[in-house]
Amino acid sequence: MKRSIIYTLLALASLSLLTTCNNHSPNDQEPEPTDTEEPQEIIVEPVDFLSEAQYDQLIVEIVYMEGFKLNANSIYLLASFLEERIHKSGGISIISKAIPSEGKANYAIADLQALEVQYRQHLPIDKTLSAWIAIVDTDYAENKDTVKTLGIPYATSSIALFGKSIQEFSGGEEQPSPHVLESSVLKHLFGHLLGLVNKGTPMLTNHLDTQHDNHCSNNFCLMHYTAATSLFYVNFPGGNVPSLREQCLQDLEGNGGK
Ligand SMILES: [Zn+2]
Ligand SMILES: [Zn+2]
To answer: pLDDT digits over 81-94, tens only?
Structure first.
């Protein structure tokens, strides 16, 4: 039963991602579900994270493969970021555990979904919302030659970080520290779950980077597209974790956040 709920969550999550890209017409027929158990339907919207109308608690479930445990400061920064931006008077808890390597050369979205089905323990229930973060021990399968992706939001409550790529682009000369880079990627990806930019949280003013879907045109902002790519140090040379700038902050507040 639990597994079927997770499959449904993943299916719905990928469906809602697809519908934001493809302009489905209302007449589009979706295939009939084959599961006769009538599993619970869970669709997480950015407003569910931002406001507490639906959920007043949040559990952030982090799993990491050996050698890719997050720095304690990175978890602290993520917690502070969430406390500052979202309403969850019942509390925000972050739990973290190790999982074994799968020995893969890289991860495509289908691989990340399978990993989540295998290990995710917390799904939104009653007044408690949940988010899932996986740090895998290799790279994204869809990397282009020139720019590497350090992490992706691949469903409405699910994030993956590519640990090997983050290590490759941090800690060296002119590179950010591993803590700064992983914190930036984590916060940036959570920004997407919160609906930035124009990804479920409406823009109050136009700050959309038209060349890079769902990113901010302000190149000082956390939601600039470079913040979760190998171009991080080119755009953010100061060695600090970037923060959200005015227009992104206004959007979050406008959609029930703070
Ligand atoms: Zn992004
Ligand atoms: Zn911004």
So the answer is: 999 999 999 999 99
Q: Minimal CA–CA distance to 41: which of 76, 84, 6, 71? A: 6
Q: Which tokens sit at 173?
A: 């000369």
**Nearest ligand to the C-alpha atom of residue 247:** 2
Which ligand places an atom closest to the C-alpha of 150?
1
Ligand having the closest approach to the CA of 221: 2
User: For the segment 100-155, what is each residue's pLDDT rounded down to a tens digit?
Assistant: 999 999 999 999 999 999 999 999 999 999 999 999 999 999 998 789 999 999 99
Helix axes 109-119, 2-22, angle to 10 degrees: 150
Instruction: Spell out the domains of the chain, with CATH numbers in brackets.
Output: 2-18+43-254 (3.40.390.10)
For residue 65, the SS3 value is strand
